[in-house]
Amino acid sequence: MSRPDPAARAEELRRLVAYHNHRYFDLDDPEVSDAEYDELVRELAAIEAAHPELVTAESPTQRVDGVPLGLFSAVRHRTPMMSLDKTTSFEEMLAWGRRMERYITGDVAFNCELKLDGLAMSLLYEDGKLTRAATRGDGEVGEDVTANVATIAVVPKQLGPGAPAVVEVRGEIYMTVGAFESLNSQQAETGGRVFINPRNAAAGSLRQKDPAVTAGRELSFSAYQLGDLEGGPSFRYHHETLEWLRCAGFPVSAHIETVGSLADVDAYCKRWEGQRHSIDFEIDGVVVKVDDLAQRRELGATSKAPRWAIAYKFPPEERNTLLKEIMVSIGRTGKATPFAVLEPVVVGGARVGLATLHNEDQVRAKDVRPGDTVVVRRAGDVIPEVRGPVLPLRPEGLPAWEFPETCPVCGAALQRLEGEADTYCVNLECPGQQVQRISHFASRGAMDIEGLGERTVALFCREGLLADVADIYSLDFERVEAFEGFGPLSVANLSAAINASRQRPLANLLVGLSIRHLGSNTSQVLARAMGHMDRILEASEGEIAAVEGIGPVIAASTKRFFSLARNRQVVERLRAAGLNFAGPGQPDVPQVLRGMSVVVTGTLERWSREVAEAAVKARGGKSPGSVSQKTSVVVAGAEPGGAKMSKAQQLGIPVIDEEAFERFLQTGELPG
Ligand code: IVH
Question: Of the residues 286, 313, 340, which one is the last residue of a structural domain?
């Protein structure tokens, strides 16, 4: 093996040390043991000693921790701020319980507290006045952030009469998810730094030179532990100290429970693991503490952590991984969406290898670059997201990513319209769009051609049988029959399905054309209002916008679509293929259901769901798929949907059967 280049190795070590400093000092969540960390620093110091020319001012060997010297002054904690031992299973929790039995006997009550994901803080009050706020630092020595903490509204600056001579309150500074999101959108708008998560945002907001900046950030505080106390009341139980803190004006979590067994602790942990997203702040586990303070004294501490407390950590929803590449995919409307190709990681219970980056602005705001180590998040059912780069790990000189100027599939120029976030490939012949567009045309909500799914379309495109949607109607079935997996029967079925699609309503055809912004509802509105494809083709943008229910954006995009010669040719070829261009004419059915919203659920005897919904719409009503306050009536057949029925009952919405529905269609009146 060749010897690594000392300059490259020093650079790598500097990044690693900076990163582990960040985990240790800012996040209070070290990834490596102290011994492993020391080994990295020693190796770096050795290289720098041998090659003094490699020493830089930024080297961690020249700095005390992740922050340049002098930004905050160092303060020694009166009593060290210890960390907590961690568990990830009930078995480990039981083992902790057994270890405690060596020191104490008798019953033990436990306080279960949510483990807030923020920064540990020590607040010192002397004669009732907040005199010092300090970060945890390395547990012995922290940073004096008093000026900044004093700007946090919920932190008491002065305690009431009768305050102890000295009291130290420990707790967590954090940011709610709501405050984090609004801060980030504000940051993105003003070109500021976008934060990876609420914890990072809280840390970044606190570590400001100018307290005015901290004052502008919405930070929260929750007290969870009483530190030094002189000249105050004496307590027997932790829960009493929390009650006292609450009365003294400190925010204390409302979710703390005192329980009598580890089985109850386990139930609390499992419950909160399942509902961790039901609250507006992030938690990464549960802290379990022995309630009896005399028992705590008997238990004591190891060199690092008290024996009387333990942290139960939830499985992580965020993981670091390498961003290998940023690629751009082309959708059916030509929309070019950047996405991250990641070194796969298991996060939030799923393996994640790809994650969307939405659009150019998002990539810029997050400043993620190929080669970065990035934070990937997947919480609950939410789609995986790249939150941002881990800056201390960024290799030096890593270039920023530029949105491509040309379509990665067809090479045509990409266009971003003014005022829009998305970029588009406007070449209608782009093969990237072809497959998406043709399979969308054939999909259920559009022309509903069974047997023409995405895989088949991709095959036909590859084989040169399809280039646009009009080609479907002159498909060379002889060639199709020669493909593997296509026998005479499937070809006959496909041909019949294509033929049947010629009769689909105009609205379905409009949906199938993939006109940007024109969805299924607006297609119906347009088809009904215009009555014929030719009217739409001839209409000016203003005439389209004048249709009730069609906004200016849809009107502009529809006009733009039909003004492209290539699209007009496709439309003419569809006409020649005999597709239905006539919309529903002026309604000849009385519009008795105008303004009504009718939800159909379960199986009706004489009506399929689709026909029942169409009958409602033909009479001027709406027929959405779910029950809301706007629902006028629910039509229930056999085996109706449970959620719909209970919602209807909850909102007091009338429910009718099939017979009543048929009368309702004629009269528009509800029984009784
Ligand atoms: S008690 C010796 N209670 O978790 C006990 N910590 O390493 C000190 N944390 O740095 C901690 N919520 O920042 C405690 N309810 C809670 C907590 C909590 C969050 C943090 C704290 C500490 C880390 C554990």
Answer: 313
